[in-house]
User: Fold this.
Amino acid sequence: MSKVFTVAFREFIEVVKTKTFLFSSVFMPLLIVGLMYATQWVSELAEDEAQPVRRIAVIDESGQVMPVLQERLIPYAEENPTRPLEFIPAETGEAESLSQQIRDGQLYAYIRILAGVLDGSAGCEIARGDAQLQMGRRIEALVSEAVKSVRIQQAGLDAALIARLQTPPAFRRIDAKTGDETTGNEIAQFMTPFAFMFLLFMGTMSISQGLLTSLIEEKSSRVVEVLLSAVSPLQLLAGKIVGMVAVGLLLLSIWGVLGYVGAQARDVGYLITPFRLTQMVLYFIPGFLLYSAMLAGIGSACNTIKDAQSLASPLTILTIVPMMLWWYISENPQSVFSIVLSFIPPITPFVMVLRICADPETPLWQLILTQGLLWASVFIAIWAAAKIFRVGVLMYGKPPNLFELIRWLRLA
Amino acid sequence: MIPLAARWGSGGGLTCWEWPRREQNLIATANRNALSLTGITKRYGSFTAVDDFSLHMPPGEILGFLGRNGAGKTTTIRMIMSIIYPDAGSIEVLGHPRAIDVKDQIGYLPEERGLYPKMTVEQTLHYFGRLKGMTRERIRAAIPRGLERVELQDWLKKPVEALSKGMQQKLQFVVTVLHEPKLVILDEPFSGLDVMNTEVLKNLMFDMKQAGATVIFSTHQIDQAQRLCDRLVVINRGRKLVEGRVDEVRARYASRVITLSGSGDFGSLRGLPGVGPGEFTDHSARFELAEDRDPQQFLQDALARVQVTRFEVQQPSLSEIFVRMVSEDDARQGDAA
Assistant:
């Protein structure tokens, strides 16, 4: 057993002291968080930048909306000082020439308010030269507010009273588990399952790379058989896997701490619950063991990183499945499809972490069964990897295909 | 068991490896072979790499394991080391059924060998020492002795990749024997070594034998074996051709080798009665003479064809015996096929 730990310790140190590890463990999460803040900052900066007046021609066929629209420009200008607008009255027959003016850049847009707009039998038209989402929404909101205001006036009602009556009630959001008030950051809440799964995904990818690199290096520098003079193939394999799982744990701890600090700073620390963390570690350990064993088998059979990566590509493709389906799974954690996906061992950890984070009420039998299945596959994978390892590790030359690997299982 | 406290000492000129004597140990294991292979067979699909191979090796000797490339030497050694398992037959290493159980008492230098290029010499020795079950204190004590013996003491803190190829090979050897093994298995130890390092390695092998260790080395360079080993075993196409003490084997194949030189057409000597296979040039010939042919009579016949300035009757070298054995075996196998 001490030999296994000697091998594991070397593996651990060799990976941890590399620049790649430093980059992926510390700089990578910092970079992601930094980018998130940076995009927000840049968009806020852009909002503050003053833009020229946008001229908009208005064909008011109802004959009553235009004056109200002009009135509405005053509060709009106060709220959006950097996005000034100007409404210019126009006549019905001018649509063609207005379009030309838009194309020439003299106008930003034209709006046609149809005659039946006040009784709801017709609508409005807006023609623009660009596709800026925010601006389009702002203009449409201005026009529809003006139309509603005219309708209320015509009905002889008090516009201020109606506005007051329609004020939506404020919600206090409380986490039923903790009794704490949540800050209502729903985006953060919605993204939490993804964040947990992404952590697992990044960890798995990093250790896979580390394991393949170390195996290929040992094979190409011909050190493998020297190692086998002192340890058995199974001890060597076990040492490598234990070392890599330790690397994965360290990686997760670093990211976990950074994530927790970040979440606290953004007042969403309540999202990182002990339950979620426990479940994550419970799925992390068999998950990493399973990937390490499968990749050790593959890596031992190959002589170059390129060969190993192409042989491992079916596995890589499989890990992308939960990445692609994370939205669906976290929105529908108890759907039949999500449950079925939980029982496919290589992706079980990812799917279960998504589901548990999205809905803590995942049935106990599913937790037990997925854990059981996962651990059973870990033992099968280690058994198979040990067999392939024994044959592959001393084999040089053309890498085998998947069918040959299966044949090796019988050979060893 | 008596602990092996090997000591490195300076013995005038070249430092020499002073292995502790293990007479008591030898007495204890005198009745037991260091290595016993009984009918081991290894197949890869339809190809039989090793076929019903048996070998019984007494302790404290040097065994040469001879065979040309692809004869089955490395496969046999890997089976001894429990790296691969035989399909049939049994193995006993230092009294244990599996080498895994006694790996810490075996030093193995594989044919395909290398070290971690980024590790320093010291880290390398520490790592492999730990893997061979040595304590940190024992490793610390053994490193200076080991490196001094191969004149690498100044390279302790250097990464392995900074060492020349020859130095790396010497370091490989220190890695193999740092833990003072009872059984040393060297697969093609001389391949790629220069003359100086070959001598260093040979001295080390003799020293280990002196200290009571059993040494097995495989080679296809027969001349190396002749000078080094007490016993030899020849393998061809996975099967054992011969096994025994070197002098016994030479005696068993005792035919006479005639060497003669001078001038004339030496190739014409091939036609004379009793002349076996050999080398014939314009000025000389070296070949085996049939047992029933009198060398003096042959010389008289030869003088009728060429001018002889030198004539010698010798025992065949191991190399010649080897070539003859393998050629005869190949011919038999060819006939059988």
